[in-house]
Amino acid sequence: MARKLLGKVAIVTASTDGIGFAIARRLGQDGAKVMISSRKQENVDHAVQTLKKEHLDVEGVVCHVGKTSDRTNLVEKTVERFGGIDILVSNAAVNPYFGPMMKIKEDAWDKIFDINVKATFLLCQETVPHIIKRGSGSIVLVSSIAGYVPLSLLGPYGVSKTALFGLAKAMVPELAQSKIRVNVLAPGIIKTKFSEALWKNEGAYKMALQQIPLGRMAEPEECAGTVSFLASDDSSYITGETILVTGGMTARL
What we know:
Layout: E1 9-12, H1 18-29, E2 33-38, H2 41-53, E3 58-62, H3 68-82, E4 87-90, H4 106-133, E5 137-142, H5 155-176, E6 180-187, H6 196-199, H7 202-210, H8 221-231, E7 242-245
Parallel strand pairs: 1-2, 1-4, 2-3, 4-5, 5-6, 6-7
Protein name: Dehydrogenase/reductase SDR family member 4
GO molecular function: carbonyl reductase (NADPH) activity
InterPro entries: NAD(P)-bd_dom_sf, SDR_fam
């Protein structure tokens, strides 16, 4: 590995499995000190132990991003343990509703936007002052192909992911003055627990593959290198952009 993030400190939310875990591992492999977080202590402990066995400099803390006290604790513990923050990867998201968009209840709609959009912004807001102290830094928001192309029965989730494109664009002019870059990762169909309804059902799996020119679903690790690139000086002149990791799926707003 190039160790291009040596000396950097990163926070990655929802990073005990799937895409988040793969990102945390890659940032660590590339030299960053990484604070892992998740809603359950046992998941945090397992992820931290796994990565420490790989000789990566990681710590972990429980964080439900929808809770103000948890977000504050995540930031404070990172600064306390590692001395500052250079990189924020906002990966946490929920989808409590699966079905026709017009039948969603208000509480489910609110939960999707509270976690996927509002909490993402508030965590950025709380992290930015610490990144400014370091002189420069990078924020990566994890969106989805669903933000471009609404997936069947996942309409509200897709709208929340579209909102992240707008959130990043809106933050760019202000944060650029502080040398903080803001970019977005939009994964396609990645083989994770979240998408298992697609790849565990043979019919759904075949239909999904028909949409992917590369003819296969991606592994979480195939998103991680892109985030490491966006977090590093290799992308020092890139901000306000969305990088799609979709195997060639067509996407446009």
